What does this fold into?
Amino acid sequence: MDDLDKLIGYGGIKMKIELRHFSKTLKKRSVLTDVSYTFNDGAIYGLYGINGSGKTMLLRAMAGLIHATNGEVLVNDKILHKDIDFSPETGILIENMSLLPQYSAFENLKILGKIQHVANDADIENTLKAVGLEANIHEPVVKDFSLGMRQKLNIAQAVFEDQKIILLDEPTNGLDTDSVSKCIKLLRKLRDEGKLIVVATHVAEDMKKLADVQLHIVEGKIESTERVSVG
Amino acid sequence: MKSQNKLAFLSIGLLLFYLILAKNYLFGKFTIQNLFRGVDFGANTMQTLVFIFFFFTIATLNFALLQSWFSDWLILQLIRYKKISHAFKNLNETIFKLNVLFHIMFIILFFVFSELFHASSSISFSLLSMLLTNFLICNLYMLTQFLFNLYFSDRVGYFLVLVYAGLFLMVGESLFVNGGSVIFQILAWPQFICQQRLSILHVNLLVWYVILLVLFMLVEGLIYGRLRQIDWLRRD
It folds into this structure.
């Protein structure tokens, strides 16, 4: 991929998520307060903060899974919940994500893939290999997976359909050191393909290794942003 | 508490309610055999309403199960469908298919029970024909879905299951009361000769179900209005 491709984004479609004065109140408690920021493709954004700081909620807002109390989220200039229901071409990893326990990793992705019909069997297998599930593609079934294997599969479901926007909440949870390295390698590769990647984590080490732009979230606000140079 | 847990508790509550009502209004004396006997067609309005509660309970339990299977996985589907309506159309179609399967199993199970009871006692087991009617309603359930075009929420699906439980008796009445289809009666009702007793079924029951139907549609409308504001990942 050349520089021009990087500039205009993967496949010639530029991806952008824009938060405009986004606020969210849950049970009279403000979880996000007047957040304004624009995420562009071709970079990995890291949302970093302690538990309860609002980084997960921010990620969910970007996916269209929660509604704003005030403000709005725009995906490629379309307002979520007004112009569109959900952010299109988005892969998402959320906490406690449930895949179908009675099926294998391959079958799970195959079933999900039937909705959009953009990934073939080879795409599914390649993704599962990329996340480190090469030995567990067809067996065992998901209910017999370890925590780390489930997390790898969750990452795989977020990226296997060539999504242009990838939102990951604590992707390294439950992963061993080697798997974390594999995960980082995969995300960097996707970034280099021009995708917009946002990762929420409370692990400072992962953040340093992964994010091109670090956003420090404190009490529902973006406290600071820092552009860093990573591999 | 998760919504499906609430629903499960509601189901158990409904079941208990049914048993209490059954004891107080249906038979006087609470025995398993009397519970089964209570569905014969000499029942009065209250007894019939008690009978409906049984189906409401089954429908609710069924739906609680379905909801627990789907709720967490639903997010993954929603993101991919991009539109809420597409996701729930698919969800409700799946629920419908499972409902058909569920009721086929239900009918088989009660058929076995009816044979067992018939063999072991003199009790006439008349539930079978009603359950066969129930199966027919599965088709009506689908028709209702397309008719109302309300495939936007699993909660709407739930209400449709309730409506369908209600419609079950409406069709049951039209098929069996005042003659109905003789061929169907012969096929579905081995004790055809006894069917004259059906004529004492309640005229006002139909009116009640029309009222319920209108009520459900109103509630569905309200749910649809509220649905657009749901936080999908919010857990109470």
Q: What stands out?
A: The helical segments of chain B are 3-27, 32-37, 45-81, 84-120, 127-148, 154-176, 182-188, 204-227.
